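REQUEST ID: PR-0412
SUBMITTED BY: lab tech R.K.
PRIORITY: routine
TASK: structure prediction, single protein chain
INPUT:
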Amino acid sequence: MRFARPRRTSLGIALAAGLALSLVACGGDGEKSANGLEKSSITVGVMPITEGAAVQIAINKGFFKAEGLDVKLRTVTGAAEALPLLKSGQIQLAHGGHVGIIQAHASKTYKLKIVSEASSMTKNLNGVLVPKDSPIKSPKDLAGKKVGTNAIGNQNSLLLRATLEPFGVKVDEKKDVVVAPFPNQEQLLKQKKVDAVVVPEPFVTQMQQSIGARILTDFSSGPTKDFPITGFAATEEFAAENPKTVAAFQRAFAKAQAVASDRAVLQEAMSKFTKMPPQLVSVVTLNGYPTSTSATRIQRVADVMKQFGYLQEPFDAKTIVLQTG
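STATUS: complete
OUTPUT:
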């Protein structure tokens, strides 16, 4: 089903408001609940994007409350910000990319457990965009070209490498990648400082509307088809000491994931989760919402990380994943 496209100003306002949103920043010291949970109150670090919105849905619909769990939210930008908060005990669960979580665990900087999968790859959720009049017609044409994205050595750069590998293209991140925040990628493309950009939603939609950018390729096929993207992690210590609390979160979150792809439900949640307007939610590409957590699926992430040098040694996902379903 096709939806009307909102103006780019709405997208820009939504993005700025979403990034600026500050949710509740306290909690996590709840006493044992009547339901037998080790903690009745926890604080969860969340990125205010559609990929983590099921947390708000679970709050809205009373799924956490039914489990005897009071969940408070604290906004984070990703794993890099969330993991130190997790380690210090300021939050008990953190939403972040699987790549960052696995890297942190494998480096022994943190001891973590992935307790819930939050999102998976869908068509055009992330993509490589070029100007509408660009001579670049195929991913193989990106060889030696300047590419803009938000960071090197992260999940987006891994997705790019994996997607270009079948075309025989290797990206030299030190030479060919221009790093800038996602909101700045459109200007880089307009000013011809880069030949292509790697961006996620809502920037994919925004740049198509505002400057007519073309999607050269996305990450929904080949080695990253249905790729697990983000999840919620706890420290090993917290998971071991609070197994009933973690299980309660998993059950409630899975129920919310089951209805998160309903745009009406998502729109209601996003009005509280971020300032993204309903019309934006109605047009952006939605990620997949896994209703279980699988070490087999997460193993794909670790294997691709090893293939492209993001891990030095083979990594067994079973050591980090608390499976459900």
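NOTES: The first strand starts at residue 41 and ends at 46.
REVIEWED BY: pending
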